[in-house]
Write a structure and sequence with these properties.
Length: 153
């Protein structure tokens, strides 16, 4: 069996040869997520290599457009769920999520207080709904939520 660090090492070297397909920045312009398409976007399955560089910005929980599966490759992270649980997601773990599953990611902290970068493979099935945020039990479309926060999507 190929271990996650081997997969991560191969993907990391491969990503150095090309620009990211998407870079998501936070309010302070720091990089939150770097995304590379492993399988190019198509209507059926999309596979992404994610380098998560910092925790979600203490925001409300968010959901996704489609059923998705994460394979944690390195470091791991905490996942906060709507029922109040905070689950450690370790390297090698598969996480299956419905599109409507609210969650938030919190990275582990280094002794310096910096977030410890985690990497994942993220498989996304076809879109079934718009994505958004959950605030006090109510769902808001992402564009509306971000506009209320003074941010652009």
């Amino acid at each position: 069996m190929i271990c996650c660090t081997t997969i991560d090492g191969w993907l990391w070297r491969w990503t150095l040869s090309r620009e990211p397909d998407l870079t998501v920045r936070g309010d302070d312009d720091s990089i939150y997520l770097v995304q590379h398409h492993v399988w190019r976007k198509n209507g059926l399955l999309n596979l992404y290599y994610h380098e998560i560089r910092r925790s979600d910005e203490g925001r409300d929980l968010h959901d996704h457009r489609a059923f998705n599966v994460s394979l944690v490759l390195t470091q791991g992270y905490w996942e906060h769920l709507s029922d109040g649980r905070r689950l450690w997601r370790r390297p090698g773990q598969l996480i299956f999520r419905r599109a409507s599953t609210p969650h938030r990611i919190e990275l582990a902290k280094a002794p310096t207080g910096q977030d410890v970068i985690a990497t994942t493979l993220w498989l996304k099935l076809p879109d079934t709904r718009p994505w958004g945020f959950w605030r006090q039990g109510a769902w808001l479309p992402a564009r509306q939520y971000e506009a209320e926060q003074g941010r652009d999507l």
